[in-house]
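Many introductory courses stop at the sequence. We go one step further.
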Amino acid sequence: MSRTTRHAWGRVGDLAGLCLAVMLAAACQQEQVVEPGGSLRSPLSYFTVELVNASHDADNLPAYNEETTVTLAVTAMGDDGQKAEAYSGQVRVKTTTGTIRTKPQGMVLNADKHSGVMTMTGGSLPELTLGIKWGLGQGRIVVEETITGVADHYRDGVGAAPSTVRGVAVGASPVLTFAPANIINMQRIMAETYDLEVDETALNGQPVIISTGKLVVTGCTADGFFATDVSQPDLAWSHVYVYTWSSPFADVGSVLRYFSGMVSDFYGFTEISSFPDWDVVALKEAWVPEPHLLTATDFASAATLVEPWEAALVKVENVCVSAMTQDQLESYQTYGQWPAGFACGKSDFVVVSSDAAPAFDPRTMSGQAINFMIGNLKQHFSAGYILVLRTENDLGLLNAR
């Protein structure tokens, strides 16, 4: 596909109080612009970011793990609305979704690969080609000036530097279309892109809007809800937790038109957080899928057999309440979590039941069997998998073992 379209943003924000900060490093070739009070602002007004070519579009969507190649033409514009041909400086190029996997010569990528820094000369980057992978839904390529900590370019004769920098130039490409924004693609990206060195995934901290599929609430907590896309054939990878900060307007069986927010990897557990938004179109009216049965064999290969059911409604059978160590007892007193296993003396996962069945005290049930438990599956680096029960009906009858 080949086309040329244009989009731009104007100067944004006031970045005040940045001691010894200056506008971009290469602005030494520009006449500094001093505003009342002695603060500096960018010699630029905005960037135009033209989309010259893209390997995928709305009629040819990539797979969740397929790279999309985009070619852009970036131009620095002055306050007069004309190309700032004398401008040479450092700019940051970033994607609002996914990561930069193929970069142009001269770009220095950040550790998270969401952005990189390069030098613009002659007021333009005439052919900027990027390979974006793990993008989800719609996104843009944003170009902005950098504010460096080096004040040498704008120091006066006695070594003083301005204390404030007002405004930076920024521009954005037209909307780009990546893999369909559904839960299954998001969860697969989160599972397949975890980078131990930076403790992040490709989507961590990026915005997402999920509106594809049939989204049904399968469980609620005091500060969020679990959603499942029941349109998927086998439901693996089709679940996510939306952290709402307080009790959500939703209930088990509610149908959602969409939900949105920032993708977060919270100690190994994928969440939608940072002031999420959602729309309930039907309250407690949908079919809730039967819980997926997890066995001891599954937990023995948890990375491949349990991970696809993160945030899902699941069921375990014939499990035993484990005796608590001192650390586990403190965890129970703090978080209401208690250990359970498929054999007495084992701890294959932990359970949260205090809200669902407040009368149940696992401290008095060590070594006792439970016929079954049903709940939504969370996880945490320190605790492992966590089964969150919804009501007392999710806790099966106890029998002596």
